[in-house]
Amino acid sequence: MKQQWQIVHSIHTAISKYLAAILLSTYCLLIQGCFLQQEPLQIDIQPRTPEQMSAFYEARGFPQAMIDALETTCYMTVHIKNTSQDVLWLDLSLWRFTIGDISLKRFHRNEWLQRWKEMDIPLRFQSTFRWTLIPELLDYQPGEEEGGNIILKRTQEPITLHAVFPIGQDKQGKAHTVKIDNLRCAENLP
Amino acid sequence: MIIRTWIVLVVFIVVTQVALATETGLPFGIRAYSATPAPRFQLQNMDGESIDLQTLRDNWVFVHFWASWCGPCRLEMPAIEKLSQIITYDKLPIVMVNVAEDEDTVFSFLAEVTPTLDSFMDTDGQAIEAWKPRGLPATYLVDPAGNIRYQALGGREWHQLEYTDFIKRVMRKKHE
Questions:
Q1: Which of A109, A127, A133, A136 is best to mutate for the B interface (most B CBs within 10 A)?
Q2: Complex-level ipTM
Q3: d(CA B8, CA B12)
Q4: Which of B28, B116, B142, B146 is the most exposed place for a label (fewest CB within 10 A)?
Q5: Are A148 and A83 in contact, with CB atoms under 8 Å apart?
């Protein structure tokens, strides 16, 4: 009897773990964003509406010209956690956003830096803006989580992300690849 | 039976965590650096009082960069306030640096979240540019010679024994 109970218990545990894994593995579409849990990382991508983005910067007193420039773009807040015991590299130069087979432009932080300089934006706003972006390059240590915004050219088409994450202190491990379909730029509510 | 399994599991996790921490000597989320000179800054708080990092030599210094819009900063701040009560300023100066926000924002944030902590203002965001942290919040432990020795990865529960013991251990290095 005890043995039967143990068998039932272990089957129950296995099924629970399996269901939990399925639930946590990936959910996209419903809110236009995506959460993906796939060893060695968790990645959460949440599109922001132009109104959300503007409200954030307006509340911090950003010049209207800066907000106007940003409002026409597609904002995605990305949060990444390294769930492995090895170093995981975020290197945005290894990320590609596409619509079908066509690349979608991602704005590099240096492009904004140049633009803000040309617009003579005060340094404090430039600084805050930079800190809201996800780094271009970061070696996520085991368990570390960091996030920030990615800025794309605005589109109404579904977007696919192809991302490569080098692994290991010297990037000597087998790189991890992630493909996420059906990301969309968030629109203001009517 | 299930309860016993859980107890064993919890004990196992705690023991292995302690063993790992002891093995590396570092609590979770703390990264050691080879001695790197801490970039100098001279900043003012909202009362116009100045601080020059260099004048705090001979002490370990806890340097913390933060902003009110950063969610993890808000979560971490009470832990820093508690740390400041456990290890007092004369032993471990805590230098809080707000990144590029105005006085009204900083004042109302601190009053609400950590009334006993004061912050210096990196008004144009240029001090943090020199430090180049991984993200916000960013915390560094600077040794008495003015070198960065440790950086915290993200927000940490500084008031927990794991971290207070670590900081006390580090501070004793001054006399070695």
A1: A127
A2: 0.78
A3: 6
A4: B116
A5: no
